[in-house]
Amino acid sequence: MTFVLHVPDAELEPEPLDPAQIVSGTPEVTGRVLWSSPDGRELRGLWQITPGVVTDTEADELFVVLSGRATIEVAGGPTLEVGPGDAAVLRAGDRTTWTVHETLRKAYALTVS
Fold first, then answer.
1. DSSP letters along 21-32, please?
2. In the prediction, which pLDDT does 92 show?
3. Residue pair 59/92 in contact by the 8 Å Cβ criterion
4. Helix/strand number for the chain, H first, E second
5. Nearest of 94, 30, 98, 18 to residue 60 by alpha carbon
6. What number of other Cβ atoms are within 10 A of residue 9's Cβ?
7. What b-and-e string marks burial along 10-26, b requiring 16 or more CB atoms within 10 Å of the CB?
8. What integer best gives the mean pLDDT of the chain?
9. Adjacent-strand bridge partners of 71
10. CB-based burial of residue 72 (10 Å sphere; 0-12 exposed, 13-18 middle, 19+ buried)?
11. Which of 67, 64, 57 is nearest to 89 (CA)?
C-alpha cells in the first residue's frame, strides 16, 4: 500500500495502558499502525501519550518525535531528553521510565521479537 497521511491531523485510536505501568498522573495512550509486515514482527505507525510517568520494556525501535516533550530514563543506560525533531533508538529489552512533560506524538518503526 502506498499513501500519504498528514500526521498532525491523523486520527489515533485508544490503546490500552496497563495500570501497573503508571507511576504517576493519568496518562492516556493512542496510536495507529500504518503498516505491518505479513508476520506482524515489523510495525510502522504513530503513537501518542499525554502527560504523566509510565514504565515500559522496549522493542527494537527507531522513532522521531513530532510534537511534545519527554524524559526517557533507560535502566542502566542514558537519560534521553526528547522533543520535536529528535530521533531516538531503543533496544529490545530496555527497561524505561517515560516522564511525559507535554503530550508527545511520535512516528515509529519497530521490530517485535
1. GEEES---EEEE
2. 97
3. yes
4. 0, 9
5. 94
6. 6
7. eeeeeeebeeeeeeeee
8. 97
9. 81, 99
10. buried
11. 64
The set of residues, in sequence order, having a beta carbon less than 8 Å from that of 46 and lying 6+ positions away, is 7, 10, 12, 31, 32, 34, 66, 105, 106, 107, 108
Hey, what's the cell of 113?
521479537
Q: Which residue has the cell 506482524?
A: 40
Q: Is the model's pLDDT at 84 over the cut of 80?
A: yes
Exposed / middle / buried, residue 47 (Cβ in 10 Å: 0-12, 13-18, 19+)? buried
Give yes or no for residue 61 having a pLDDT over 90. Answer: yes
- Tell me the C-alpha distance between 102 and 113, whole Å: 30
Does the pTM surpass 0.70? The reply is yes
Place of cell 495507529: 32
Whether the pLDDT of residue 1 is over 90: the answer is no
pLDDT of residue 53: 98
Q: Rounded distance, CA 10 to CA 102, Å? A: 18
